[in-house]
Design brief:
single chain, about 425 residues, D-Maltodextrin-Binding Protein, domain 2, 2 domains, five-stranded mixed β-sheet, four-stranded mixed β-sheet, about 40% helix
Length: about 425
């Protein structure tokens, strides 16, 4: 979930929580939220600026509930991880901050409040709980359940004589040839963004070892696994990237998210890569009537490997040593359990809700994801199993591969070298 860099800081005076007694904890810094009104200040510092308007709306609504709480909200995309670490090192840890889910739970465990007994956990879906659990504790909560897949334009496919999205690499190549022959740019990759590569690569990781993708990644982190043992990584992934470059943007490493989204929204490109539901609002701002298709990635020549991935990508955490723990917990529990909150995810944030019994947004990608889950098993977001320190280096290596700074064998050797160095905090 990414957008171009910017920061927004917003402060509101807020009111008493509607909650009394928000759970228990064994830590003195995780004391039970007492009954009565909340007061104080809550500092929020998160990435995912695409949700700025929605979060502002939630803060405004909460003002009606808790006028004695001040919420300072800051969001930034560029260098977020570096800035967060600087805050932590200076002892200025925000009350609420964000990281990637999964293995990042371990990296930030010492700073994270144990939410296991909080009301918001009871509201979580099972897939969200899985992505937020470390050492038997729930250490975070997301704004959204995320889905990852191939975004395509059905109208352009039909114009080129393509009846359905590709499920194999051979079909992808054939479809690209048909689109090009029809005068349509087949793909826009957004390869200027390093995180696009991690979103793509996780589909290949899932196909490489579908029943134990965490074990697959652990093997690479331990330095035991090799790409050569997994043809879908060693060959199919690079073939996919080669196809995307061949049939993609004229200057692939100069195409960022904004350019990629614009190319798709204006009908220039038939497919975009590395994206998910978070781009739909921006696409519809350009063309409100554009019909968006969403399907699994063709990662091999086995159609059964073509899947959507659904799970938790980014997660929010509460600082366990917050001086405003009650006010912070009350706000977060309100967002997850109130009637307003349950409707907020789908209707205001336009996100796949991470809570039970909440309405899905009416957007095309969310609808396609919901339909897919009724008859198929989605892949798990393998991006969670490595730290973003590795994921960023991985993206930079792949940018080097596209720039021909690395050969394929050199890129693979560098990835295998960096995974043990940057893949885990333990």
């Amino acid at each position: 979930m990414k957008k171009k860099a910017f920061a927004v800081i917003l402060s509101f005076a807020m009111a008493a929580s509607i909650f009394t007694g928000c759970g228990t904890s064994s830590s003195s810094s995780q004391a039970q939220s007492s009954s009565g009104s909340s007061s104080g200040k809550v500092d929020i510092f998160i990435s995912s600026p695409e949700y700025t308007d929605a979060i502002n709306a939630a803060i405004s609504e909460y003002k009606k509930v808790a006028p004695n709480v001040t919420i300072n909200y800051e969001t930034i995309q560029s260098d977020y991880s570096t800035l967060l670490k600087a805050k932590i090192n200076s002892g200025e840890i925000p009350d609420i901050f964000s990281t990637t889910a999964g293995r990042e739970l371990a990296a930030y465990e010492q700073y994270s409040y144990d939410l296991t007994n909080q009301p918001l956990v009871s509201a979580m879906t099972d897939v969200v709980k899985k992505g937020e659990t470390y050492n038997g504790k729930i250490l975070g909560f997301p704004i959204t359940t995320q889905s990852f897949g191939l975004i395509y334009n059905p109208a352009l496919f039909q114009k080129a004589g393509i009846q359905s999205p590709p499920k194999t690499l051979d079909e992808l190549t054939a479809d690209c040839q048909k689109l090009k022959a029809a005068g349509i740019q087949p793909i826009s990759g957004g390869f200027k963004e390093w995180w696009v590569f991690k979103h793509i690569f996780q589909h290949f990781e899932d196909a490489a070892q579908p029943n134990d993708v965490s074990g697959l990644v652990d093997g690479f982190i331990a330095g035991k696994n090799k790409f050569s043992s997994y043809p879908v990584l060693n060959d199919d992934f690079f073939n996919f990237i080669d196809t995307a470059v061949k049939y993609g943007d004229a200057k692939p490493l100069e195409t960022d998210l904004s350019a990629e989204t614009s190319a798709f929204a204006t009908g220039k490109a038939a497919m975009i890569l590395g994206q998910g539901p978070w781009v739909e609002a921006d696409i519809k701002k350009i063309d409100a009537n554009l019909k968006i298709g969403f399907a699994g990635y063709p990662v091999s020549n086995n159609p059964s490997d073509c899947k959507l991935i659904v799970g938790v990508d980014q997660t929010l955490r509460i600082n366990k040593d917050s001086k405003n723990i009650k006010a912070t917990l009350d706000f977060c529990n309100w967002l997850y359990t109130s009637d307003y909150g349950k409707n907020w995810f789908g209707n205001t944030a336009h996100a796949l809700p991470p809570v039970k019994d909440a309405p899905y947004p009416s957007f095309d990608i969310a609808t396609a994801t919901q339909q897919y889950l009724k008859g198929n098993t989605a892949g798990f977001p393998a991006v969670e199993y490595s730290l973003d320190s590795f994921n960023q280096k991985f993206g930079e290596i792949m940018q080097g591969y596209i720039a021909k700074t690395y050969t394929k064998s050199q890129a693979i050797a560098e990835i295998e070298k960096q995974w043990p160095l940057l893949g885990t905090s333990k």
